[in-house]
Amino acid sequence: MRTILVPVDFTSTTENAVKVAAKWATQYEYTHIILLKTSEESEFDYLHIAEGHSFVNEESINSLLERTELRLNELTNIITEKSPEIKVSKAISNWTLTRSINDLLSDQPSVELIILGSDDKETSNDSFVSENIISIARTSPVKILIVPNSYNYSTIKNILIPCDVNGITKLDRLFHHKSIIHQQEIQLMFLNIHTKENNDSIAEKKKEIEEYIHQNLTEIPSNIYYSYDKNIINGILTFASSNKADLIIALPGKHSFLYYLTNTSISEGIYQNVNQPVLILK
Fold first, then answer.
1. What is the extent of the structural domain holding 192?
2. 20 to 30 A from 31, CA-CA: which of 20, 75, 207, 249?
3. Are 62 and 105 in a shared domain?
4. 112 with 2: CB under 8 angstroms?
């Protein structure tokens, strides 16, 4: 069965990711959602120190497990109420979040997508999952959907794909995921942001990239745009907002959100993006 994995930490950020997962599963024909809760508390939270000795506070551990189970049931109910046909599983791990995800992916090869909730500049929830987005995105072998806390799910119609005119072969990753975009009334917007006002190389590459895209995506309406901005992230987000993009797809290479998030500022890339989910292809 096609499966979505959603790591949760019981903040409103990951609760919103769960709501999006329920809708996403229905739209793209996933049949199974796994909710993963890892232990972000220190082991010292469970210890009492007395007379030079330490011992495990079983009452605290049992209370934590009960609260965890209760909250996971609440999130499960959110999914079943929105999408009763979706199977929901719960997983609890004492390992680090990144290791827990990779272990689960090894045990559950049906997982095709991980949905991560992200704190944004409009809200500050100190989400444990949000703090680990970059490490998860770096190590995950499956595609990642980053969902800002302020994002309200809507049907995907306009997809923005930032791309580099000097690396058009990176678009191959997009063609391998046609099932994601093969929906009715989908419009693709390819965007190249250049950081030099007079960039003659764009004129030289424009025809090549247009022919490449049209040859591979003849059945899907698409347009190619060129824009100037000294800050590529700012240029992408400004274009996405003004052109009502419902989803940003990050490709490998210079114009990838992941590239910039791992090489500049996490807050610059994630916390500025309060409107659109970002899908990182693998």
1. 158-276
2. 249
3. yes
4. yes
